[in-house]
Amino acid sequence: MRANGLNPIAWEAPHYHTSAIAARTAPQLFTTTYQRVVYYTADKPNFFAATGKDYSVGQFYPYVIRKDHYGQFVLPENPGNIEYDISEIDPTSNYDYTATDVITNAKYAKAVRDGFASFFFHPFWLEPELGTPGLADFKKAIEGITALGYTWVAPSSLR
What are the sequence ranges of the domains in the chain? Predict the structure, then answer.
């Protein structure tokens, strides 16, 4: 990326999932991660054990984490992201998570001093053939979070 004039500021695992070992290794290249981090009870988890089964859990932080369990500096992505039920096109996309849901979670994040409301929006929701209110919901989320009193800042300024 740098060879092409791009300066990445953070790492995000695809769909927030990576192994515990990869999460421990990523800070060697990217000291910052910008995501809902998934944590495991073991570096090589056994999810199928009859007893003593390992687990993974996603963590939503409402604030910056200077150094997490894996050694990562975590910029939170916490109120969720807008989703639509398009199961007729993609059977794995079968629920709605609206701008109202994102705004509600941003409101909850204000319960802590200097709370964050950082969400992700998939640009493919803007494609007209999907028949979703993507642009309207994106605008609603921005306006709703702004109305809660949040200040919009560049993630790179949080280091």
Answer: 1-76, 78-159
